């Protein structure tokens, strides 16, 4: 899965620059920019959107998400976030596609092509020049470790 993520992100960056969609100018790579991409290959409508973003100081990634919605609203229509005082903002949905971890274990994975999944969220991650940042709509395939119970009892042992 991780190999697919890195390869797809590399392709996204190359396609954006090759098609002349480089919003930073005519240079092959902008010296003070990074690439922001969103990818949904799980549920219709499928989409893969990507855009170079100019760095504007040491701002958290959430700032650039808002800039993408304001400037490039045909590719980046909206996002939905929930604020948690301890952790910051958690991205629930992008372009109208909501994660639903409880029912189908889907979520938006926040990652960098160089490092893989990030250990920081959009409130604290500060992109650097050349970064390739990706939100990938993902299904968590890890087995559940919590056993469901009925009123605190093992359902196999419950007798009505």
Automatic annotation (TrEMBL):
Keyword set, alphabetical order: Signal
Signal sequence interval, chain numbering: 1-18
UniProt entry tagged with the keyword Ribosomal protein: no
The organism's place on the tree of life at top rank: Eukaryota
Claim: Cell membrane is one of the keywords in the record: no
Membrane-traversing stretches: none
Pfam families reported for this sequence: DUF4430
Residue ranges of every copy of the Transcobalamin-like C-terminal domain listed in the record: 80-138
InterPro entries linked to this entry: Cobalamin_Transport (IPR051588), Transcobalamin-like_C (IPR027954)
PANTHER family, per database record: TRANSCOBALAMIN II (PTHR10559:SF18), TRANSCOBALAMIN-1/GASTRIC INTRINSIC FACTOR (PTHR10559)
Name of this chain's protein: Transcobalamin-like C-terminal domain-containing protein
């Amino acid at each position: 899965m991780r190999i697919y993520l890195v390869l797809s992100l590399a392709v996204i960056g190359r396609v954006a620059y090759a098609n002349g969609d480089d919003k930073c100018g005519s240079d092959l790579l902008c010296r003070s920019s990074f690439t922001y991409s969103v990818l949904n290959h799980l549920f219709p409508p499928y989409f893969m959107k990507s855009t170079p973003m100019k760095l504007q100081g040491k701002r958290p990634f959430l700032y650039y998400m808002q800039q993408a919605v304001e400037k490039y609203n045909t590719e980046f229509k909206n996002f939905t976030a929930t604020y948690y005082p301890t952790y910051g903002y958690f991205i629930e949905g992008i372009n109208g596609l909501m994660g639903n971890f409880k029912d189908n274990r889907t979520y938006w994975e926040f990652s960098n092509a160089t490092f893989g999944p990030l250990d920081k969220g959009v409130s604290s991650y500060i992109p650097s020049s050349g970064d390739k940042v990706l939100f990938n709509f993902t299904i968590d395939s890890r087995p559940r470790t919590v056993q469901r119970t009925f009123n605190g009892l093992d359902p196999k042992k419950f007798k009505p």
